[in-house]
Each structure stands twice: as structure tokens, then as C-alpha cells.
Amino acid sequence: MPPRHRRAANPAAALWLAARGLAAGGRSDLFAEAADRLAAICAGREPAPQGFVARLQAEELPAALHCAPRDGGGLWLFVLRLTEPLPAAFAEPLDRLEILSQMIDAARDACWCIDFLDPVDLRRPEDEIVDQVFRNRARWRACNDAMAALYAVPADQDFNTQPVSRYFPETPVNRAMIRDLVRMGYRLDGAQAIDQRHDGTPMLVENDFRALIRDDQ
After folding, report:
1. How far is the C-alpha of 30 from the C-alpha of 17, rounded, in Å?
2. How confident is the prediction for the chain on average, in pLDDT?
3. Burial class of residue 64 (count of CB atoms within 10 Å of its CB; 0-12, 13-18, 19+)
4. Which of 35, 44, 72, 162 has the fewest CB atoms in 10 Å of its CB?
């Protein structure tokens, strides 16, 4: 991999790096199994996964890696070094996550997720819940290439970094759809909405919704 500067490390990580003659500003080619994949992510040829496991170079102990895009370009790479071989109970869910991520990326159907940075409080009255869906801070996650093609997103732009409201605006039709979603217990199939392509052109779309609810949010 090309050189990447480390921006932060906790004391344990700093000691571990120092013991191997590594320090801030050095190369980050520590992950033998993941080097090609990390290079592809950095080059934009592969979307950043939620997390995956790789063995540290020249060592048998695995590490859990999480990638997140940086506002100024590039990636943050968060590393959790595991202190023992990965338990099967932990490895299996990560394997399923990786398989599911690849399936979504390769799917011909448009797949999307809206992640609410300000959680929607489902204990509030219906009108307030609908308001929150459109006004709480949110971001796209796990949107695949088919989704980007459907909304005509330019090839040099990542759908997941775009504002949610750009493609899913607050309109009477879309508010009515979210109201139906609330009344159906946050599981709704064949729901019609009027979304916008990247250039602002309106289009009619049909959605199947599933909401992940935790602590009434």
C-alpha cells in the first residue's frame, strides 16, 4: 500500500508500534491479508465496509478493522487488535456481515439505508415522528451501485456522502408514505414516493421499508 500517516494511537497501540520499529508517519502496510483490499478502498474501487477481520503482518493474531470516509478525502482506519485467535462465535457474524455486504453491493435492485444521526423518538405523536424523519440529521449508508445508477449519481461521486434530502425530499406524498410506515408498525412494502434524481428531476419510486428500532428510537 502507499504510505498513510497515522493520526492517533492510544498508549497500548503506540507501544505495540514502537516495539516493531513503527511510529506515526510510517507505512500502514501492517495487514498482510487486507493490503490489496485496503488499497482498493483508498482508491475508491471498493466501498468501505462496516468492518472486517485481517491478520496482522507476520503475526497470527487477528485484528478487527473499521473504515470510515474522511471529510477531506481518504479514510480513517480504526484498528482493534484482538488478544487471542478469533472465537468462532465472533467470526461467524463477521463472516455473515461480509457476505451480506458483498451481496448488497452486487445486487441489481437498488438498496439503501437512512441512518439517523439524531434518532427519531417513536414515543412522540405521529405528526412529530413524521417531522423528525425529514428534519433530524441523517445520512445514507449501504447504498449500492444500483441505487446510484437509479438516481443518476455521477460516477465520480459516492451516493453515501450525499445529503439525504437531495434524493428523498419532504413533500406531501413522501410525508404520507412515512405516515403509512408508522401506522404499519415500521414494516411497509410497495410504498410509493416521489424522489429526485441527482440533477433534481422528480421520479416515482416504490420502496420496501424495514426499520431497526432500539429503545423506542
Report:
1. 10
2. 78
3. middle
4. 72
53 by DSSP, 3-state: which?
strand
145: left (phi over 0), alpha (psi -120 to 50) or beta: alpha
DSSP string over 152-213: T--TTS-GGGS-HHHHS---HHHHHHHHHHHHTTSEEEEEEEEEE-TTS-EEEEEEEEE---
CA distances from 40 to 63, 77, 80 (A): 19, 14, 21
Asked whether the predicted pLDDT for residue 208 surpasses 60, the reply is: yes
Q: What is the pLDDT of residues 197-207, one digit of tens each?
A: 999 999 999 99
Which cell numbers hold the place of 144?
449500492
In this prediction the pTM is 0.57
Once rounded to an integer, what is the mean pLDDT over residues 84-92?
Answer: 54
**Residue 68 grid coordinates:** 470510515
Dihedral sign from CA coordinates of 16, 22, 23, 25: negative
d(CA 60, CA 52): 16
Edge-to-edge strands, sheet with 75-81: 52-55, 62-69, 75-81
How much is the pLDDT for 192? 93
Q: What is the rounded radius of gyration, in angstroms, for the C-alpha atoms of the chain?
A: 20
pLDDT at 13 exceeding the cut of 60:
yes
